[in-house]
Write a structure and sequence with these properties.
Length: 356
């Protein structure tokens, strides 16, 4: 190779996104050895075909992969390297979740204030409720409240609500033991989902509130702590109160509809009701087939994003779902036909983008 084909360490640093000091470190670690080193000046030179390895090295270090794992990933084939990256990220997430739980315990210990008893519920029931409503959460840095579950406790019931702006899901539970406390706050959904894995194995969970979060007390296990989200939760009750009465109602077998949605192509699903006959259609106007559905009320046609509609159906309780329709630009209420304590609202879309 001619000297003109080689790049100085400064040029290579600029093209690879690595600093010269980092390149020296990786050269001394034998992860990225220069193509040539001037024996007199000690200047290091690199070949253009070393850029892909340098780029991969930089990206692996950016996700926090240790040097030994980076070396193995760089020398592995694509499939094995991908597996190693997935394994590393899973470990990072596991460690972060453990750190968050430990931080919540430390915060609770530092404040050392007695909790306010909120409710006592069956562990599996509370875990199911968390998983059902958390499908309507979303991670959005500008609006952290969307990754929270709003909990409202009163003397007779406890309600869990979540929304990602396109869906709203709310579940009401009757506690095993009633308290006189009235309390409401938004709790981190990730903390609750992690706690749900433990709650599912506990017959009873005692929920207590503190200034920084909620404490879930379970027998013969460490207390579970979930942090609060300080951003105000949307006034969903006012929105629900202002919804007009449904003009059309469709009842459909839940599992048949889910299977049809899974087999459908495209991003959109349309629900058309004509002369009392409901039909589900793909974005290409292909019918999803006979789904054992019935309808009453006015003719209507509503279109949904599949990513909004499918979770709303899948989290419903029981073998059937009931859809309360109000028009093509208003939320559709998805509720269980046999139990009304889980309610989900799903926003339709305009295929031409006039509203969403």
């Amino acid at each position: 190779m001619q000297p003109s084909d080689l790049m100085s360490i400064g040029v290579f640093a600029g093209r690879s996104g690595l600093t010269p000091s980092a390149l020296r470190f990786y050269a001394d670690s034998e992860l990225l050895v220069p193509a040539e080193v001037d024996p007199v000046s000690g200047y290091r030179f690199y070949r253009p075909d070393q850029l892909p390895r340098a780029d991969m090295l930089r990206q692996l270090r950016e996700i926090g992969m240790p040097l030994a794992a980076v070396r193995a990933a760089l020398d592995a084939g694509p499939a094995e390297a991908a597996r190693m990256i997935d394994q590393h990220v899973a470990k990072v997430l596991e460690d972060a979740a453990a750190a968050r739980r430990q931080a919540a315990r430390l915060t609770a210990a530092l404040t050392d204030a007695p909790g306010i008893p909120i409710a006592t519920l069956k562990g599996p029931v509370l875990a199911d409720a968390v998983e059902q409503v958390s499908s309507a959460t979303a991670r959005e840095p500008s609006m952290p409240v969307l990754d929270g579950i709003h909990i409202e406790a009163g003397p007779h019931a406890i309600t869990l609500t979540a929304t990602d702006r396109y869906r709203l899901s709310t579940r009401t539970l009757v506690p095993d033991e009633l308290t006189a406390a009235t309390w409401s706050a938004t709790v981190d959904a990730g903390d609750l989902r992690a706690a749900a894995n433990e709650m599912r194995r506990c017959a009873t969970v005692h929920v207590e509130a503190s200034a920084h979060g909620i404490r879930l007390r379970v027998a013969e296990r460490d207390d579970l702590h979930c942090r609060l989200v300080t951003e105000p939760f949307p006034d969903y009750r006012a929105m629900l109160a202002n919804l007009p009465e449904p003009t059309t109602r469709v009842t459909v077998a839940k599992y048949a509809l889910l299977r049809a949605l899974e087999d459908s192509a495209g991003e959109h699903i349309a629900l058309s009701v004509t002369d009392g006959v409901p039909e589900f259609l793909t974005g290409e106007e292909q019918s999803l087939g006979s789904l054992d559905a019935a309808a009453t009320g006015a003719d209507v046609r509503i279109t949904f994003q599949l990513t909004t509609f499918y979770p709303a159906i899948s989290t419903a309780i029981g073998p059937d779902v009931m859809l309360d329709l109000r028009g093509q630009d208003l939320p559709v209420t998805v509720r269980s036909a046999d139990r009304g304590d889980l309610t989900t609202l799903a926003m339709p879309i305009d295929p031409q983008g006039a509203f969403r």
